[in-house]
């Protein structure tokens, strides 16, 4: 199914025209015009109407009209006059519906009959001009603060030009059950505004004004909400009204694409969808850019160079089930591509493109496999593979016959991708929707150079895991040389044994301070010999009642990448985040020490 | 009075050594060592002790120890073992006091006698090593959440090595009255942690962990709090424990100076101080960098060039009581200096330097006045003048004899200074403490390119006003050419008449969209002719029940400065912030239009 999609201009950064252009480019069918955007615009309403028409956008809503009703007759008369002025603006705009919020004013009308009467009056005036009023309960409204209270007022006012606007934030933030919405007559549902949000313990007005998210980025059950709205017979646009501080200052064209993707994904989640994501069966490979030293580190970690690409400067390194391609392009060492095993790679790629992922143009040699690939918002290429199928990607490599000595690596546990500040939620939604992953855990912690937020996604079988992280604010720009590295986490069964073998082969393992182990010994009841082994090899151990996550990290290689050896005990949803500040401080020390040696 | 000052390492960004160096350089007497900083440090505790001694810092507190008490005897035994390990660390560190927080764990002890008994047990162990335990109620503690509850536990446990740690945040965030603290025996007040905070409607734990501020930057009455603590007989250090997301990623050396300044200011506010700020009597002048065109704009705004500096490329422009110096240094047009009239300029400057303001070295000609000056955190020079006194600054200028035609400007209403993200709270405290201003109003609004926070400061007579603003997050880096201009607001008695005269002289006034006036007419009951006049000259009108703020702005001149003509009606604490988004959008349009003409 494909609902009509609409976007409130308040969702985006920029001037009104920037927003209209971005909404149209992203594929929206219409917009809500947010009054302050119009007021600051040099385009008269009639010109906005033409501009929208040129862009193929309908003007679905004008919003908001606040504080109509009043216990003071003179004030109510002034508010009606204000409404008339706005109705004239709407006529020029070509908007037939206005969003009217329940009043938050001190003079708001509490008496239900009087309130219904005032709404009836304004509805009559709107009706005379062929306009409609969509009445919405703000969660912090003075007397009307729930959707069922707004429905009671609308029912009582009983005017054909007066209906409801449902806003998922106001309903779900209060924990209201959306199911009874199904009983509202569909023709009284004039408009639908959608927003997701994280669960936050804060004033609901601040939560609403700053921390809304696009559907699928937060914690609300929007598919259940949508099913109730559709059951009522709502047939209007699905419109996004998302107040978010980050989106409000980010590139509007990208934010609009993210927004549109969220509605496509929500539509699929609501109705089941016609083309679900193919099943994933693990990481096929990770491709890193690097140089000779990158291969040297992989060799010290027990990998063998098992293949050389037929036409490109790319090496295949393998150990156990882990495959790392080293693209010796000479660029900064970083993750260039993540490849997942898909049951149906072309279907995975089609789905990704349908969700507005840019298809990745590939230079392909005559005998090379046609890898299905798209680009993620953070610039990482995403490949869909079926390793072992006829004509798979591995045929692009000439086997070297080299064999891995091995240090016990069994596969790729997960990939860690640092995100740019503006696009963290976009990236999370992208990987979630395009790969069909689910969010498994998230955290926010104080790192030595500022706050970091992390979110992990995985498929239900935990065969494919991604850990995304972002520096909130700006993380220590005063401290030169602090970057935000990506990493590849390799699964091992015994991290101490693996680290011992890696150390013997001169792998550049990261040293961890003795103070960490003194604290570990105070916190956990572990044998002294085990702690001594951890200390010897720089093992970090995150512990919960459900399990543990043990890791040994390398130094940061060539600027932006490190490798971790990871042993899991029990809990499969740990990512070592409680130890991240210690790891970050150690990485910075190594960097400063290396810089000192160079100078 | 000059209390011993201490700083918790958690206040600052960086690794432990960065923090110690910064605290010492800023003049702190001691530090609290935050455990995670030590755990991530390569310095063993004994080395930290030596490092602090070298830097002249005492180690006043080790913190925190969490969740000691337990209803589960085995768990309590494990916690005692953990405490013993930390006591050993403290001995090596040379810290004799540990902060112990009230437990937040599910197994926290509720029974007061059992809790007192467990605390007595751990105090006995500390006492054996010559250590002390400072017990603190976390505002979100499971059973002990108020300072009086923590005092009841300490009293009941009755051990000489067990006392209280008072944390102003935990006490004032709950709205508790600090006065009864005066009745606690001083020798049981083992430690004092100070933090300010803005009033926020949010979960207290999140509020505490992310939004604390240094004293004087928030809304708490810390002088009253301190008077109660001093009345009790507390004689230990005044220590800052401020968890703040911005400070945690900002330059630690600057943040430490800001922190130390806050304690000096608090000490003065608590005890009256020995050298209060001299009385201010208005803006003496504003100095802007610019070129010939800057003078041209001032001329069009009715100013006359009344003087030329004897030795420097500086012109004095005057109209009514407003004086603007144009420094034709060829640099970007911006505010270089703000000069205030002080009853005692040398005393003002001495006070500023005592509050860690860098004194401004001045190149001074043989016959020039010795201007008392310091540099503010945003780089603006701050001059203290006594215009009209013998040997005042105006003698540095040769009079031209030119007279101002005048458009009705009577003086400088205020100066608007955009601040860098990392130093907004620092700047507010600086201007407040150094000039003796008070915060009069603040706001946070959604501008076209992201969230902006503003705060205005003024002296009690409203003779000197400053408006500080900052872009939260990063404000539209996607939109090239969006800068954050500073401005000089000139007071006029009739903004329409002044704008008419300025327009006639070809001043580059900023055009405001018709849509703004349609909205104004809908919102306010104003005569149509008045709105028409506003529209003609681009007047913005902010209205409250107490008054109005009318302004006409120029375009942004030479990169970073605009001038506003300001008429106040009634309310003296308005700054036109509700109209700022409209003004910002108009400034961006002008900039794009000019760029288009150039290309």
TrEMBL record, chains A, B:
Occurrences of domain VOC (ranges): 411-555
SUPFAM superfamilies: Glyoxalase/Bleomycin resistance protein/Dihydroxybiphenyl dioxygenase, Xylose isomerase-like
Coiled-coil intervals, chain numbering: none
Pfam name, any one: Glyoxalase
GO molecular function: 3-dehydroshikimate dehydratase activity; dioxygenase activity; metal ion binding
Family designation: Belongs to the bacterial two-domain DSD family.
Protein name per the record: 3-dehydroshikimate dehydratase
Lineage of source species: Bacteria, Bacillati, Actinomycetota, Actinomycetes, Pseudonocardiales
């Amino acid at each position: 199914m494909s609902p009509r999609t609409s976007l409130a201009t308040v969702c985006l950064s920029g001037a009104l025209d920037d927003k209209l252009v971005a909404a149209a480019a992203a594929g929206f069918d219409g917009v809500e015009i947010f009054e302050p955007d119009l007021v600051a615009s040099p385009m008269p309403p009639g010109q906005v109407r033409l501009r929208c028409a040129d862009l193929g956008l309908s003007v679905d809503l004008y919003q908001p009209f606040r504080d109509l009703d009043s216990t003071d007759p003179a004030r109510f008369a002034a508010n009606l006059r204000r409404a008339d002025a706005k109705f004239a603006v709407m006529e020029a705009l070509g908007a037939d519906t206005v969003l009217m919020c329940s009043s938050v004013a001190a003079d708001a009308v509490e008496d239900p009959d009087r309130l219904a009467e005032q709404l009836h009056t304004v509805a009559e005036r709107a009706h005379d001009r062929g306009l409609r009023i969509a009445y919405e309960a703000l969660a912090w409204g003075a007397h009307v603060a729930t959707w069922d209270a707004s429905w009671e007022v609308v029912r009582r006012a009983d005017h054909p030009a007066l209906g409801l606007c449902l806003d998922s934030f106001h309903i779900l933030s209060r924990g209201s059950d959306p199911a009874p919405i199904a009983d509202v007559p569909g023709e009284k549902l004039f408009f639908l505004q959608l927003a997701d949000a994280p669960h936050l313990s804060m004033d609901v007005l601040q939560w609403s004004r700053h921390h809304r998210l696009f559907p699928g980025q937060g914690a609300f059950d929007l598919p259940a909400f949508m099913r109730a709205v559709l059951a009522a017979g709502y047939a209007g646009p699905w419109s996004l009204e998302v107040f978010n501080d980050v989106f409000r200052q980010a590139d509007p064209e990208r934010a609009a694409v993210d927004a549109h993707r969220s509605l496509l994904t929500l539509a699929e989640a609501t109705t089941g969808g016609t083309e679900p994501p193919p099943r994933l069966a693990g990481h096929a490979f990770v491709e890193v850019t690097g140089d000779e030293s990158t291969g040297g580190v992989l060799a010290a970690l027990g990998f063998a160079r098992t293949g050389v690409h037929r036409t490109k400067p790319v090496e295949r390194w393998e150990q156990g089930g882990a495959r790392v391609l080293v693209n010796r392009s000479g660029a900064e060492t970083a993750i260039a591509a993540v490849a997942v095993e898909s049951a149906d790679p072309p279907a995975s790629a089609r789905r990704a493109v349908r969700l507005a992922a840019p298809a990745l143009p590939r230079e392909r040699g005559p005998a090379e496999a046609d890898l299905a690939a798209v680009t993620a918002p953070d610039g990482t290429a995403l490949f869909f593979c079926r390793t072992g199928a006829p004509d798979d990607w591995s045929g692009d490599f000439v086997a070297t016959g080299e064999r891995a000595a091995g240090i016990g690596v069994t596969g790729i546990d997960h990939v860690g991708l640092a995100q740019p500040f503006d696009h963290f939620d976009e990236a999370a939604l992208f990987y979630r929707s395009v790969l069909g992953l689910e969010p498994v855990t998230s955290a926010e912690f104080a790192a030595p150079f500022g706050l970091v937020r992390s979110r992990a996604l995985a498929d239900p079988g935990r065969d494919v895991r991604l850990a995304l992280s972002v520096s909130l604010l700006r993380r220590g720009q005063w401290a030169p040389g602090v970057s935000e590295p990506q990493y590849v986490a390799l699964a091992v069964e015994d991290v101490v044994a693996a680290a011992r073998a890696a150390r013997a082969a001169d792998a550049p393992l990261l040293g961890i301070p003795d103070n960490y182990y003194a604290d570990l010994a105070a916190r956990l009841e572990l044998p002294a010999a085990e702690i001594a082994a951890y200390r010897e090899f720089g093992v970090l151990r995150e512990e919960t009642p459900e399990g543990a996550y043990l890791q040994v990290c390398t130094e940061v290689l060539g600027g932006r990448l490190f490798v971790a050896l990871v042993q899991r005990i029990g809990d499969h949803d740990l990512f070592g985040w409680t130890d991240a500040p210690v790891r970050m401080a150690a990485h910075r020390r190594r960097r400063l020490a290396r810089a000192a040696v160079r100078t």
